[in-house]
Amino acid sequence: MKVEIQNHVEHLPSALNGMTVSSTHHDPHMLDETCLMLSNLLTRSNRMASKAPTICDGTANAVDAKLSEIDRELSISVITEEDTESVLDLLKRFFFKDEPLNTYVQLGECKELEKYCTKSLGEHSSYKAVNSRGEIVGVILNGTIMKPQPGDEPPAKLADNCAHPKFRKIMALMDHVDEQFDIFELYPDIDRFLDCKIISVDTNYRGMGIAGMLTDRTLDYASRNGIKLIHVLCSSHFSARVMEKMDFNEVYRLPYADYLVNGEQVFDPEKPHVALRILTKRLDQ
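Structure tokens predicted for aralkylamine N-acetyltransferase:
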């Protein structure tokens, strides 16, 4: 699963861990991140419109105060196991609620998703955006997938051992995609790839190009470690746009309207989220 971020034109250069980037730089990923931010704000305002009071109660001042608290000096660095709780805190506040499939099934608390999110942190291939107060405001969670070898047991279905009924529906969709599409058949010369599992950014920090910075650092990690292929499964229209603008190419698409169980459509998230897509980028071409 992937999340809902965008980028625009040229890429930021790769750099060493701990790079500090000021948002005052003309960031290439700002346009689409801004679109996402506006989309989230519009969605929330629509849902709250019937409950919102029409009197002036100082809300504008509160918003201005909140914006003034945003720390625009950010650093990008590797996520370690010690960051687990802080990473989960960010994901629970944003990704768990905002990702289109999670939103559609009204996922709520989900220990299985927490485990899914953090199981690859020990690889030290995931990255965080941190402000000067030490707060994590964005993450990209990655994991290496190895090509199955002759004689290997088939991997267990993700949904089979999932106790959470709502998350099990999402895992069953992932199992269906695995049955329909084999990336190693498409790229027979590849023995492993880096899977971008999740990108999530604090709503208050969207529009600052953080997703692009995190993705650029992931590409740098892959290059330095001899990984030739990056893979991302996008459940969101916005996350797919991010990758397309970073020269990722679509290799698989499943419209949500076409995924049926017992003849019934399982997922129907709000537009523009109409299809699950896989995009890839080769780093050796």
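Strands lie at 19-22, 73-78, 127-131, 136-146, 192-201, 229-234, 249-255, 260-261, 264-265, 275-282.
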